[in-house]
């Protein structure tokens, strides 16, 4: 071992991961409450990310996101994020909430991850609205030489409905490794000369962090999904992995929440209503409370 800090981290993370059951991503199954362990660990900071945004004037980054018949993803996610911040601060005493944006202006994806990492977030929740692309439809408009002539056009696909949870995909693990490494070095200057990608001990440490964050991300996503389905009675497309930059560049457990299909008339009305937004926020808070209670109760000495 090069130093005690690295030895201590590897040892504690190894103990943590031996308690985790084997996990298959073919479909997300329930994780036991003893799957997340960290001695004396406390959740102190939750980063809430309102997906997309816009700019009133001037040039620059602009990612407005999806739209419905009368509303835009960027406005819905900001409204839910602001409500979620207030609810967490009210119902989860001692938790600091950091917003990646609090105005209509957009923030680029890397900056969102940077904000999460700079504020030493313990959890990252990114809020979005889903939408389906248009469907291509072909119809016969005539015949030529006894062969049909087709006219192809696009029509809106409004069949999507309900929620979807995303966690980062394995194909972007190198990017997550960099984020974790940067955070480790910043947290402990003693490790600045320790994290060496060619050193077996450093590889062990990095792999333990990646596995831990992935397990925790999936578990949090499942808790959120259960609240949406079992409490609110909403349809769910489940939990999937996807190579979302803002997730894999955040050095912490991270979940992207597709709160509904904004191009579906029923979902759009729900997402824009006070009732719908309040239900979404309440479900997220309950899931976060359950996650926090599990983590902190398991981490206490028996």
Tags for this model:
about 300 residues; alpha/beta; Aminopeptidase; 6-stranded mixed sheet; 8 strands; globular
Describe the fold and architecture.
- Strand 1 (45-50), helix 2 (73-91) and strand 2 form a beta-alpha-beta unit.
- The chain has one domain (4-9, 43-131, 159-298): 3-Layer(aba) Sandwich (Aminopeptidase).
- 42% of the residues lie in helices and 19% in strands.
- With 302 residues, the chain is an alpha/beta fold.
- The two termini are 30 Å apart.
- The protein has a 6-stranded mixed sheet with strand order 2-1-3-8-6-7, sandwiched between helices. A two-stranded antiparallel ribbon has the order 4-5.
- The longest helix has 32 residues, at 200-231.
- Helix 1 (4-18) crosses helix 5 (200-231).
- The protein has helices at 4-18, 73-91, 109-118, 173-187, 200-231, 245-248, 265-272, 274-298; strands at residues 45-50, 96-99, 123-130, 135-144, 147-155, 163-168, 236-242, 254-261.
CATH class: Alpha Beta
Instruction: Assign the CATH superfamily.
Output: Zn-dependent exopeptidases
The count of strands amounts to 8
Q: Helicity range of the residues?
A: 40-55%
Shape: globular
Mean of residue pLDDT? 79
Count helical runs.
8
Q: What fraction strand?
A: 15-25%
Q: Which radius of gyration do the C-alpha atoms yield?
A: 22 Å
Give the SSE string: HEHEHEEEEHHEHEHH
What is the number of domains?
1
Task: Give the strand order of the largest sheet, numbering strands 1, 2, ... along the chain.
Answer: 2-1-3-8-6-7
Residue stretches low in confidence (pLDDT < 50, at least 5 long) are 10-38, 188-193
Q: What class would the helix/strand composition place it in?
A: alpha/beta
Report how far apart the termini are.
30 Å
